[in-house]
Amino acid sequence: MSELKVRGCFTTTQKEKIRAMVADGYTRQSIANKFGVHVSTIYRVVKA
């Protein structure tokens, strides 16, 4: 599966992956860097 650089839009799998990473204790900044997105995008995904 190719990583698509779509601004502010994640697949369900990516959202689950991000939530799992937050649960594992990753900082939102490090997750944002990993996915190449803005930190606020991560906050929005986690909150949703």
Largest sheet geometry: none
Radius of gyration: 10 Å
SSE series: HHH
- Number of extended strands: 0
Oligomer: single chain
Distance between termini?
24 Å
Average pLDDT across residues? 81
Number of structural domains: 1
Strand content: under 5%
Shape: globular
Q: Helical percent range?
A: 55-70%
Structural class: mainly alpha
Total DSSP helices: 3
Unreliable parts: none
Which features does this protein show?
48 residues, mainly alpha, 3 helices, 60% helix
3D architecture notes:
- This protein is an all-alpha fold and 48 residues long.
- It has one domain.
- The protein has three helices and no strands.
- The chain starts with 11 loop residues before the first helix and ends with a helix.
List the helices and strands and how they pair.
Blueprint (H helix, E strand, L loop, with lengths): L11 H12 L4 H8 L3 H9 L1
